[in-house]
Amino acid sequence: MIEFRMLGTLHLTDAAGHEVKRLLTRSRRLALLAYLAASAPRRFHRRDSLLALFWPELDQEHARAALRQALHVLRGALGGDVVVTRGDEEIGLDFTGLWCDVVAFDEAIAAGQLAAAVDCYKGDLLDGFFISGAGDFERWLERERARLREAVSGAARTLIEQCEAAGDVAAAAQHARRATRLARHDEDLVRRFVTLLDRLGDRAGAVAAYDDFAECLRVDLETEPAAETKALITAVRERQTAAPVELSHSRLGRVTQSGGRRWRSVAVAIVGAGLLVSSAANWRRPLWPSPVAGRVQSLAVLPFKNLSADTLHAWYADGLTEALTTDLGRIRSLRVIARGSVIPFRETSKSLQAIGQELHVDGLVEGGVQQSGDRVRVDVRLVNAATGYQLWADRFEEPIGNRFVLEDRVAHGILAVLSLRPSPTASATQNRAAYDAYLHAELRLWRENREDDSVAIKWLEQAVALDPDFAAAQAELAWAYTLRVNQFAPGDSAAVTRAGLAAERALRLDPDLAEAHFARGALLSSVSGRFAPGPDIQEYHRALELNPNLARAHHNLGLIYLHRGLLDKAVAEFRATLAIDPANYGATRRLGIVLVYRGQYEAGLRQFREVPPESNQSLWNYQVAWGLLYLGRDKEAADLMEHYLRDHPEDPGGVVTSTRAILEVKRGEASRAEADIRAAIEKGRGFIHFHHTAYNIASVYALLGRPARAVYWLHQAAEGGWPCYPYFARDPNLDRIRSDPEFVGFMKQLKAQWQREQDTL
Fold first, then answer.
1. pLDDT at residue 425, as a whole number
2. Distance (Å, whole) CA 180 – CA 633
3. What is the pTM assigned to this prediction?
4. CATH topology of domain 629-760
């Protein structure tokens, strides 16, 4: 029988027991087999759905040809009977000839054979596996990892409880030991394991378990166990009675394993940011008041459900979710999670407590919208995220045309129960079609990649055409065009003009619209192209005065500080971004950049890899390769860059091409490095992040021992928007020219500027 193991170590053998190497080295075909085997419930899959998962970049004809070839290879490697079809359009697997550990795990869970299920689970599904350019597959994989992780964790907890109830503490401890190995960062399980060992009289084992966990947190996440866990081990060490302790829901105190790579990245980013900013003595004030027992000071508005029979009414529910998030976000004393970070919970089966833990909030707002005739009814409730208990609930009803009245009533009801006063808001639009187009754009815009940005622009142009006085849509249109110029089309002067017109119109329509001030600030940064402190910073600060929960404004402030070398201030802004928008990939990556700037290369690389590559293919591949080179892992860096440049020869900004030049000069291939420098300059000119390419070129010349050329390109990097003195002063790539007089003079000027900006920004 064919054996396919995906939990932990990847293993595939044919019916004769021989390893099927030809599939293990072909990631996309292996991914197809994994999806057919692991996708729950087990079923046949339509060809069209497989095309969208694995070959989204190809047209229909070429994608179908690729699928046919992949199926041919699978049948050739595994036998013709394993991959089966139903009709012409459906594909599946015949499990009578194939054993799969994921299937065995699910069957054991369903049958209540929990010990067998835990034994089957050896680690995360396809751990460390990914294929580029297949975002839908990556998202499916993350969901499956989370599902399986939750299932094994739940099974382990049930086994522990069953053994404790039967009085078999030793068996409970054995299950707890296994569970802590599977969920290495789950503090609740560790405390339970320590308590069980203490009850058995194994103080040494309890202390060792705690020490192992503390070291794991230090190495993996650069943090420490929570205060409650420290108190527990102190009691054990002092030979006091070690009793279970309930962990508080402090945002920075608990790291959970329940959410897959996307949500692990959030936990890593927030915990890492909390440590990094501890040295920022001049950070002005806390973003929000310290938590008070029994009070809700942070919340998320979960996507409202459309309870009407007609799915066309979903726009009303989406609009209410968007409006409540915006209205509540204007309250300075309330931290409100950005809408982009709650969208993944639209169809989730997770408990409210689990969602609250992932988003690190005190409260959750949820509800449903139902239309009957010409009236709309909204049921809404506020829930304590830690306990799941309902704090407040109400029902509101209005004529369908009174959408803004309904939104205001719901928002005021929530604020009243929180003893908070509403902020004045301006109307958006009464045009249903314009608002629907705006919502479509919002779903795309927060992803910040080229395809989604282009689609968002089309929707927003439609929105402002339907209602030119729709200020929020004008502001978002300005931001969408600015994003286009910054990252995808630097020479598009028409886009710059369009962004400027939209931003100014938004401000004329609503001078107190935070998003409009943000859009103008982003445009000013884009036009200058140098991250120089000026009017853009003022616009970002004004945006945050109007809406302290505008994560994008915090992020862009952090971006300016990062480029100027003001690292503590940058981390503080990225921390603020992630507190509001845990799924903000830009802030997550840039916390990794700070770690690299400070010489913490391993931690920086881990941070980069917590972000899915498709979030920004160019910058992700550049930053991961950058981290690998500092660690001396040249082969991995080379493979990564070659793969990326083969699929993306245009390399926007030239950052990957210029990083490859550093690798080539380290290998003694100076002529190839020079060729890559020329190519990077050609690809990169005009992009807002070309200064990174300029710095890479300087690094090449420094490694070659050519200080004059190196200093010339360092000037280009600094004057082009990246005068980052702390990084320049530390980077080992520049060590060969540090005694050069021209370099010494350059660094002296750079340091003086950096010190001035530390005092003035």
1. 54
2. 30
3. 0.58
4. 1.25.40
